[in-house]
Amino acid sequence: MESQGGTRRHVVDLIRGLDAERFDVTLIYGTSRLDASFIEDLPELRRHARMIPCDALVRNISPRHELAALRQVRSAIREIRPDVVHCHSSKAGIIGRLAARLERVPRVFYTPHAYSFMAPEFSGKKRVVFTALERWFSRHATTLTFNVSAGEKRAALAAGLDRADKFRVIVNGVPDVPVPSREEARAALEFAELGISDGAPVVGVTARLVEQKDPMTFARIAAEVIRQRPDAHFVYMGDGPLESDVREYWRGCGEDVASHTHVIGYRADADIMVAAFDLYLLTSLYEGMPYSLIESLRAGVPAVATDVVGNNEVVRPGADGRTARAGQEARNGSLFPVGDVEAGVAAVAGMLDNPPSRDTVRETFLRRFLASQMVRDIARHYRGELLPSEAELRSEGAIKEVRR
Which distant-in-sequence residues (6+ apart) come within 8 Å of 191 by Cβ? Predict the structure, then answer.
């Protein structure tokens, strides 16, 4: 797997949650993009699983590295002789599934965490190539694909990757751990030192400053909302290559905006520090099933997010399907079109004026996004309890392909 972001979080929670009496787990992971959270998790993970680093598993396309990674994964499978191989993310999914097929592993599962062809930057020939690869591997080297959202599954079917019964939706979940109060989180983040008073409304996000998250739309929405509501503050908790662009934009908006906007960098405890916010704002161009939105609901913080796959299955707006009607309480947030600053401003302003209660927001988390449910569903597939019949799979040759 690629050990960064949502993929890392999903795999770590899965390893922690699997019953050690029933599963003997080995994790092969790429080392080229280890994030700080994964490095911190490594000592604990070694108590739950055998950990095998793979230096050759890199993000950029490199035939030399791909062949080296394939050899290493095949060698590990040949030694371990697993009953199940579960691959995560697009590139690791191709290498892992090919290795599993060549070594005749009986059950091969795949979680893409957003298909590569869903990304806006992949267009034309690249999109065609990635779609063709996903189609071949789904049909010839995969028992089932686990999609983290219904929208991701719809994208797979629209692209003609495989039959509908080869996909199962198992949404991401997080443990229901204690989170600090709003006041405790603000004190821990030293909001007072940033000039944020206890009563000031704070809109925030915990995300990397990268193209996928579209931080410039966050920045533009922030500037306009602050002009309308001078008491509001916006906090970006994260780091990344676009940080300087965001800071420069806010400085260019004048002191009134610059003094109410803050980039506070990466924090290992960002998943619970989200409790400091009054509203969560996620401006992603695309998603699979974003953990950060789920974490905001766990803390009782309502969310405004772009209306894309994944986001629109976590955020549940009011009765009109987009934003709460005047005087009506939204269920847990609001949605707006990708890149639409004007609509984003209206959604944020509306939610600040008429937010749902924290208890109402948390209820939407408890009902659907618990890690225990995610692990239980995946484990049942590992044990073969929820697999489609062999007759169904054999109709397309899938069983014959992986058991040949």
Answer: 202, 276
Phi-psi region of 302 (alpha: psi -120 to 50; beta: other; left: phi over 0): beta
Q: Closest Cα partner for 92 from 4, 213, 157?
A: 4
CATH class in words for 182-367: alpha beta
pTM (2 decimals)? 0.81
Pairwise CA distance, residues 151 & 250, whole Å: 34
Instruction: Give residue limits of the domains in the chain.
Output: 5-173+370-403, 182-367
Identity of the residue numbered 318: G
Summarize pLDDT for 193-209 with one digit per residue, the tens.
Answer: 999 999 999 999 999 99
Q: What are phi and psi of 27, to 5 degrees?
A: -120, 120
Fill in the amino acid letter for 73. Answer: V
d(CA 280, CA 330): 14
pLDDT given for residue 121 in this prediction: 65
Could you tell me which CATH number the domain at 5-173+370-403 has? 3.40.50.2000
Which residue would you say has higher pLDDT here, 136 or 400?
136
The stretch 217-222 carries a mean pLDDT of: 98
Q: DSSP label at 322?
A: S
